[in-house]
Design brief:
Chain lengths: 214, 214
Amino acid sequence: MYIVIVGCGGLGSALATKLADEGHNVAIVDRDKNAFKKLGTGFNGLEITGVGIDEDVLRNAGIERADALAAVTRDDNINIMVAQIASKIYNIKRVIARIYDPERKSAYRDFEIETVCPTTMGVNEIRNILIANGVKKRFELDNGISILEIKVKKNVNMTVYDIEDKFDLRVSGIKRESTIIAHDSTIVKKDDILIVTMKEAKAEALARYLGNEG
Amino acid sequence: MYIVIVGCGGLGSALATKLADEGHNVAIVDRDKNAFKKLGTGFNGLEITGVGIDEDVLRNAGIERADALAAVTRDDNINIMVAQIASKIYNIKRVIARIYDPERKSAYRDFEIETVCPTTMGVNEIRNILIANGVKKRFELDNGISILEIKVKKNVNMTVYDIEDKFDLRVSGIKRESTIIAHDSTIVKKDDILIVTMKEAKAEALARYLGNEG
């Protein structure tokens, strides 16, 4: 794929490096040419110095033939403007804007631009680790259902099917020395960490059943 | 819980607000008292102005009775030092350090401090949205196994069990109008999004089988 990235800060440079390493054609734009130093010597993509809301700059970066664009500068307003140019003028189907200020997310929803807010992701992850009570939230689906990690702290002598049958949930993986895919007949052992899809409200009861203290 | 947060930037202030809203006792430390303006008027926690590596400052923030501490300043070195003070001197069991520079993560692993890198989380999320080929990676376990979302683009007339039997994987949830927990007998329908735990290398084959174009 041909991917344009606008903004070569910590996130933009890491994204550009990863995508180039995976074999994609990457063009990265930043108004400060020193920013490209973060890319490392192995980066084989296009580096364009200029402001991302300048269409000449975007055309130099190849926006007319781009399959995807990520606007990840430190300025939320620039990100959303670049994303709109890419989406509305150049009809790029895969466009994403980074958000710094989580409170603006709902405003951006009105522009129909997909957004990612690393700050919110970090807050949720840290919160889950700090508050963990044997239950670690991995991610939230909807309808109250989440994917959780729950540790087995005692011998329960049950298969995956037994646990699924007793609680309304699905065990999909188990972290042991190395992670395995769960099957109905897999026997659950002490010190396993179960990857469970279930109603979050019922997770504490399961955690206690598996020997976690409340 | 009594939680000390060191660093009141975008992430620290959002974390403090969230935890206080959930009913936890929060003390937040920043060397710049203007940083506390980000907390909003509803914040009822303790605000301590000072440098996080100063033990007097940490004691003013109540570190001696803290259940958990998050070190989330903009300086990776300060974060790891604060985390070590909390862990080694004050024996706090739940300690987490934020990392800015993903390349340092492995160095920090040696300190046995749990770390979170929002930049890396953002990079992975953006990459997955840009590159999506019917497969959206939700998170990576290990051993090549990940939790993925894969869309069903045609009628396959199969149950969850049939798909699990044909490919080596576990379906744990299905996104429809509203998300459901998968069971062996659940019938898979066109336009479902399957939440699948499987070897990532085999995901494209499954996506194609389910009608996604390569």
